[in-house]
Amino acid sequence: MPAEFTMTVTVAPATALQGVVRVPGDKSMSHRYAMLAALAEGVTRISHYAPGNDCQSTLRCLEQLGTVVSRHSALDRGTGATVSTIQIVGRGLRGLQSPQADLDCGNSGSTLRMLAGILAAHPFTSVLTGDHSLRRRPMTRVVTPLRQMGAGLTAADGKPPVTVTGGPLRPVAYRPDTPSAQVKTAVLLAGLQTNGVTTVEEPAATRDHTERALRAFGARVLVDGLSVSINGGQRLTGRTLAVPGDPSSAAFFACAAAALPGSFIEMREVGLNPSRTAIFDVLRRFGADVDVQVDRIDAEEPVGRVRVRHRGLTALELTPADVPGLIDELPVLAALATHGGELRVTGAAELRAKESDRISALVNGLRALGADADELPDGFHVRGSRRLLGGAVDAADDHRLAMAFAVAGLGALEPTVIRGADAVNVSYPGFFDVLASLRP
Ligand code: S3P
Known about the structure:
Blueprint: E1 8-11, E2 18-21, H1 27-39, E3 43-47, H2 53-64, E4 68-75, E5 82-89, E6 103-104, H3 109-119, E7 125-129, H4 140-148, E8 152-155, E9 162-165, E10 173-174, H5 181-191, E11 197-201, H6 209-216, E12 221-224, E13 227-231, E14 240-242, H7 247-259, E15 264-271, H8 278-286, E16 289-298, E17 301-309, E18 315-318, H9 330-337, E19 342-345, H10 360-368, E20 372-376, E21 379-383, E22 391-394, H11 399-409, E23 416-419, H12 431-437
Parallel strand pairs: 2-15, 3-14, 6-7, 10-11, 18-19, 22-23
Antiparallel strand pairs: 1-23, 3-5, 4-5, 7-9, 8-9, 11-13, 12-13, 15-17, 16-17, 19-21, 20-21
Helix pairs in contact: 1-2, 1-3, 1-6, 2-3, 3-5, 4-5, 7-9, 7-11, 9-11
């Protein structure tokens, strides 16, 4: 299989990192805001829309479905960063148009799974596909509930391309086997387009951006413990929104600060939704000095700052109950463990179904840099008692692995050469420049 990403970046060892960072807009929220905006009535303006390829894939798919999207970039004088604002003219519930070609979701599982929920209610056939990484990811988890609701979905071997033939849907009470915010969202968005009450009861809590975003667009959503219900037919209203910084991107700097003696990094305007902040609690358990402060609530979402200071690392064990809240941060926690800590994770077999097999590619990559790391069937064990050597490592076409290997490499004896480092463009274009700017 040809590599999707081909650029190489070299990360030199670092002593300490210091500075203030504003990470890009949250990827999960950007997808949801764009999709709800397309289903809403009226115009929605979204500032700090996530700049990575994944959220651009969502916009392109929505355009292919007849949605008018305009993009505007301006320089923020305060931070010197480019702020991307998106304007979407809503088409109303079930108002999307039949696409002329397959919908290319690129590398983005969120785009494919959540759009499947929306398209399930539309009276036409569409094909959702993506790059070679996305085409190996499991889709039965959305195909099954959407079929139960009455849509026609097919996916050979349960993998993309997924063909969706939509139409009138029945409401459903659905209990997914695996905790997944994408599946919950797909079912709720399909449920919004029925004439009754749809309920999803999760096996464990997952990020709740969809529930909050639906409310921000004017819908009523009932949450009772692990069960979420929505009444079909509620109309959404377009609005103005600002996306806070992505805590999963902030996690790389938080871990870098926790890794290197003398480091102190402050991240501002970070999304602090409690379903995403487990990383900061776990960093504290791992030994770091972490201060989290909520500054305001914006469109139902807490936003604030995170300060992380190095204070040494201990041994940490993460159990299956910890995993759903940390699923995207496990690779960088493994990288952090190489800086003199120890980390054992179990109950995370789901990592094998991400942009890469994030257990084997992570452990192989850390080992290539000299780490003492083992793969477990459902997790990994990293012992950071010896310093990494550095060397060459393959990002395995996975944005989070490219950034995790950079954090690991900061503590190595020799430079770390990351192949396929441009995978960071999936969620964080400019990551390596920001990392370099924190060096003294
Ligand atoms: C996401 C949910 C998680 C996460 C992914 C984004 C979302 O995936 O890993 O990066 O935005 O809902 P799953 O739903 O597959 O757990």
